[in-house]
Design a protein that fits this description.
Helix content: 25-40%
Number of strands: 10
Largest sheet: 4 strands, parallel
Order of helices and strands: EEEHEHHEHEEHEEHEHH
Radius of gyration: 19 Å
Number of helices: 8
């Protein structure tokens, strides 16, 4: 079987990490509004993929997250949290908004005959898992603090642009640093946000009271339920340049290995793993 691989931009032979078993992680909905037909295109795809794998006899574990905190109105770590914003507009608590639209999502998914993933995990139920993952990222030298909170240093991860094939040199130097002049690179992103005291959902952490960055939850929950490496990650194509790129960077920075190598062989250590295992600080 061959599957299209975003990393290589080609159809590659698929060979599972463990014979007979497949772990699939799907980026789930941000439950602040109804999902539209474009959103469901991605979930129909992941459902079809799962069904095909099960038809072929594989033991499939399908995990999908529910984003109910941390997804700001801009991918550049600016603006309001989408759940917070909707809660204020509707004069409700964020959890009320989240549960209402989560139910609406699964009701609509059922109408499309999409099977419920084996594990559905909410971000707000996994805050401690995220904190522990950030501890690992920070201990390995990939994070620094600014007035916004704890920031991932993409400059210490040379493979950062590999998945999205971004030309980081062509990014506008001030596009993000206008918001945070302390950031070292335009592509750096927030792991833990502490500068929004009016945010309705906050937790204590080693970096101050705040909430997780949007990209962090998928890294933490995919590792928790599928392990440090798993077979397939699906999601909307619009996630590739930022969300999936940042996930991959976080996973590798914390564990020393990419979530899945592009080749059908078992994954080989990436650049950051060699630095971590040698006891060296990246950079």
């Amino acid at each position: 079987m061959k599957l299209y691989n975003t990393l290589t931009r080609r159809k590659d032979e698929f060979v599972p990490l463990v014979p007979g078993k497949i772990g699939i992680y799907t980026c789930g909905p941000t439950v602040y509004m109804y999902a539209h037909v474009g959103n469901f295109r991605a979930y129909i795809f992941s459902d079809t993929l799962r069904r095909v794998m099960e038809y072929l006899g594989y033991d499939v574990m399908h995990v999908m997250n529910i984003t109910d905190v941390g997804h700001l109105t801009s991918d550049e770590d600016t603006g309001e949290d989408k759940l917070d914003k909707e809660a204020r507009l509707e004069w409700k608590k964020p959890e009320e908004i989240a549960r209402y639209y989560e139910k609406a999502f699964f009701d609509d998914a059922a109408r499309l005959n999409i099977e419920r993933p084996h594990i559905v995990c909410r971000a707000t139920d996994h805050i401690q898992d995220m904190i522990e993952l950030v501890r690992r990222i920070e201990a390995n030298g990939f994070a620094y603090r600014t007035s916004v909170g704890l920031i991932f240093d993409t400059g210490r991860y040379p493979e950062y642009a590999l998945l999205s094939r971004l030309n980081l040199a062509e990014q506008q130097a001030g596009a993000r640093t206008q918001v945070d002049l302390e950031r070292r690179n335009p592509s750096d992103f927030a792991l833990w946000i502490t500068n929004q005291p009016k945010h309705l959902m906050q937790w204590d952490s080693p970096w101050g009271r705040g909430f997780p960055g949007w990209h962090l939850e998928c890294s933490a929950m995919s590792i928790k339920y599928l392990g440090e490496q798993f077979d397939i990650h699906t999601g909307g194509i619009d996630h590739v340049p930022v969300h999936h790129t940042n996930e991959r960077a976080q996973n590798c920075a914390a564990t020393g290995v990419p979530p899945r190598q592009s080749t059908p062989r078992r994954s080989q250590p990436c650049w950051c793993s060699m630095r971590i295992r040698a006891g060296l600080k990246p950079g």
